Structures are given as structure tokens and as C-alpha cells.
Amino acid sequence: MLNLSNLIKQYEGVRAVDDVSFSVEQGDVFGFLGPNGAGKTTTIRMIMGIIQQDSGTIELNGKNINLIGRNNLGYLPEDRGLYQKQKLEETIIYFGILRGLSKLDAKTKTNEWLERFGIGDQGNRKIEELSKGNQQKIQFILSLIHDPSLLILDEPFTGLDPINQLLLKEIIQEKREEGKTILFSTHQMEQVERLCTNICLINQGKIIVEGSLENVKKSHSSDSVDVRFTGELNIEKAKSFFSEMAIKGSSISGVLSCEPRDFLTWMNESVIVQSFQIHVPSLEQIFIEEVKKSS
To answer: Which residues, at least 6 apart from 243, have a Cβ–Cβ distance to it below 8 Å?
Structure first.
């Protein structure tokens, strides 16, 4: 488990990270979200030991992360840092050895991953000759070739076509099932909804939303509903449950002025309810709403 407690990082009087605390359970894909400049990258760099926090603690499986071997960590940064003139197979083997693999193991794993990503025949090509998507695949391989227990993925889908995005998601799910702890940062909210169980949204260095994705969406649900029914409905009585209501044939849509269950109970006593839908906002809508409120 990754645990951050009361992290603070300040630059020239500005708190880039302001008392941030959250935990990522083992076997979880945790969405770490926020607009540009929110403090995400600073937080990730503190986790990785690239910069040091001014105060607060970072622990992995109960131990100070700075006392744990770096080979336990895997990091895919948003910005590419590949040696453009080197051949891709040489690059992956080199980084595998740096992260504790023997040369033989590094070569074996390199070949396995290149085949998995459909570029097994391109090992002798220079990095600069690859497409942006294939360079992103190499960065992803470098982040996990040494089988780290904590995997940090910052915008992992950049440059990938839909087929390779599906492959990447498949591998992330495999790593989750293996019990890896995964911190996932992106601006692609639809990917968060497909992959993550829990999320944390920060803005201006502060946490503004945190919890399970399911609970976050429920807490932002509106009282707007759509109902389809059969039977004779008391229209005037139905209107008393709404602040706004429109009825067309045997369909009602509107904004409730009461608890949804109270209205549904009355409906079930009056007519046969065929469908009852409460509008749940997308994560993107929640993201925009919460960032606006906190800015």
C-alpha cells in the first residue's frame, strides 16, 4: 500500500502541494487527477524521490519510501526521456540492467514485451525512427520490465491508437490482478472511469474530491429523473413531487423536489413503472464542476 500523509511542498512562497494525504491499496488502480498546475507532477516526483517534500511522509507497505530500493518503483513520466539515437532493444536491455535484472533476464523480458506490443521485429531500429505511439510503448515497457510493486503511470495513453489503448488497459488490469499498487494520472476521464476504483482530485495543491469512484458519482447525482410507466397517472399529484416536470405520453422527465425513493414509492402504488433513471454525471462533468468551484 502507498500512503501519503500531510505532504507539503513550497516554492517561493507558493504551496505547490498543500497538506495532501491519501492511500492507494495494494491491487488498486488509483486515479490521481487535476488540471494543469494542480500539483500532480510535484506529488509524483516526491513519491519517486526526485524532489523532497518540505514536510509529511510517504510510505510504501509501511516503510519510508526513501529507504526502499528504487527497483520496487516503476514510473512512466508524461514527458519522454528516451535516447533517440539508440536502438530500442539496446535501450530496454540497458534500463532493465539498471533496475537490477541480469543481462540475460533483461534480454528475455525485452523480447517478450516487444512481441506483446507487436513490435518484435523492430528491435534494431533507432528510437527516433519510431512513431510517437511506438515510443510510448517503449516508455511503458521501461516502467514495468523489472516487475515493480508500485507502478506510477502519468498520461500512459498519449499517442496510442484505440487498439493499443485496449492492450495497455489489458496489461494494467493484469498488473492489478498480480497485486501491484498502481497510481494512474491522466486528463482522459473516460479512461479513469474504465480503470479506476478510487480517485483523488486536486486543484491548487489541495485535495478537493477523494473516495471511491462509485461514491463520488453518487454524491454528485442530481435530482433529475426520467420515468416511463403504464397505467392511469394522477398528473396533478405527480407534479407535487417536482420543481420542474414535463410529461409526454407515458414518460415523465424533470427535477424532483423530494427524495427519489418517495416519488418512486408513490409511482409504484399508482402505476406500473417500466423504467426509472436518475441522471448521474460523468467524471468529466464532476471534474469541471469541482475545479471551477475551487478555483
So the answer is: 254, 255, 256, 257
